[in-house]
Amino acid sequence: MTTTGPDIVELDRIAVHESLRVVALAREADWERDTPCAGWTLRQLVAHMAAQHYGFAAAARGTGREAAYWREPEDMSDPGRTYRGAATAVLAAFAEPGVTEREFALPELGGEFPGGRAVGFHFIDYVVHAWDVAAALGAGLDLPGHVLDAALAVARRVPTDPARRGPGFAFAPVLEGPAGSDPLDEALRLLGRDPEKWPPTS
């Protein structure tokens, strides 16, 4: 389903840094904005993103089975600061030698996965979630072409079984799009996001 090996760690690092950039664009009045994640405000989305960072960091260090690491932060009064702390934690964990050769326990996905594959899961999540944040703010996403090409390759491998798409799952059902879409738009539609509903305004 994913790219594996040391390159996936670098791809993930780039995606997480872009998520940090777009989260930092938010101002106090923005946190209650709607997002492409149905039913979630920007504050709620960023809380989820922070929880996933801490959970994956724990998984990289062999403690991913412990539910406490996957809980959303209780204090979201300063979402930007909370998010920076979580992103720092996962980047440090993934930078450790041999991370792609470890086994990651990922309870939400129902088991243990090779490290390279697990980092790939995280990578595609943070390309998509960085876009979610940017879209909510009317901003554009700024990722290099090779990162978007890799994200599209991963998105094409995500199972499309309708029984595993929709509410309660990581991604919504696949959306059809025009032929010749750019890699980001195609990846987003494969993962149930509609870029036409959230065009950049700045």
List the helices and strands and how they pair.
Blueprint: H1 6-23, H2 42-60, H3 79-94, E1 103-106, E2 111-114, H4 115-137, H5 145-155, H6 183-190
Antiparallel strand pairs: 1-2
Helix pairs in contact: 1-3, 1-4, 2-3, 2-4, 4-5, 5-6
Task: Describe the structure in your own words.
The chain is mostly helical. It is 47% helix and 4% strand. The protein contains six helices and two strands. The chain has helices at 6-23, 42-60, 79-94, 115-137, 145-155, 183-190; strands at 103-106, 111-114. Strands 1-2 form a two-stranded antiparallel sheet. A hairpin with a 4-residue loop joins β1 and β2. α2 (42-60) runs antiparallel to α4 (115-137). The radius of gyration is 16 Å and the shape is globular. The chain starts with 5 loop residues before the first helix and ends in a 12-residue tail after the last helix. The model has no long low-confidence stretch (mean pLDDT 91).
